[in-house]
Amino acid sequence: MSTFTTINLVLLAILTATAVAIARLRALYEATMLTALFSLVTASLFVLLDAVDVALTEAAVGVGISTVLLIGVLALTRSREAVTPRRRRLPGAVAVVLAGGTLIYAAQDLPEFGAADTPVQTHPVTDVYLRQSQEDIGIPNTVTSVLASYRGLDTLGELVVVFTAGVAVLLLLEPIMRVDEARRQTVLDLADYRVLRVISRMLMPFILLFALYVLFHGDYGPGGGFQAGVIFATGFVLYGLVFGMDKAQQVLPRAALRTLVPVGLVLYAGLGVVNMVLGGAFLDYDTLSPDDPKAGQHAGILLVETSIGITVAAVMTSIFLSFGNRVAAQR
Asked: What's the whole-number mean pLDDT along residues 113-120?
């Protein structure tokens, strides 16, 4: 057994044990921490599979922001799960067994793990993306070429989903946030811990600098707008956790965040309109530099990634601040 296979099996065992522990726990805080561990191990698996772009997003969203939001929700509700009556467990158990059995049966048709003759390796489209993209677009990172250029319209649809989900959450939380300030209880506030304050102040510039690196380096290595936007949001989440919601909203006023949420989407779609005005197709970046199409591709992809980063960062930060400013539930 190779070292690669051994590491994968160990990580799979950790994921399985973590999932079983989460299912059995009734203490929701502990289950939340184990969920963060599950995301961290999953990110490690993505790294082993050379999907570093996905691993960055999983680590930032699954381990960072999602965990903070879950803790904020638990602080507003209760920390223990209600006991489910036995008569209601049977349908769930049957559904799990049926779904699990179907997946195991379907998995029999999968190629051998790590085989070199899988469709992913032998299909003609693989050669197109890995080689022809270098001639058409001239960007070393094939993932960025595919996401931002070949399937730019699909990525625009994903950004619309992020925008719509963010707006829906904010609309749901907005009425709850309109409360008497004297009753507002800031749940997420660690400002009394001096060590955290000092370390956070030191880390903030590096977090934001790393987010910019991930954004502008996405053409050459793992990164891009989605990853950079989440890292930006993680920095502001850390600031809000340590220094309080009021200080966070002084740095990023709510009105400014509401403005930034649609800005990225408008820039992305507007770029496509500009391409059409210049005589090309929607999101055809070659029109930005007719004499040097690769330069046009570089410029277009950079604008697209920046647009994605703006909307993702604004949506994530807005949701966090909305949860952080909610009033604690009356017990």
From this structure: 79
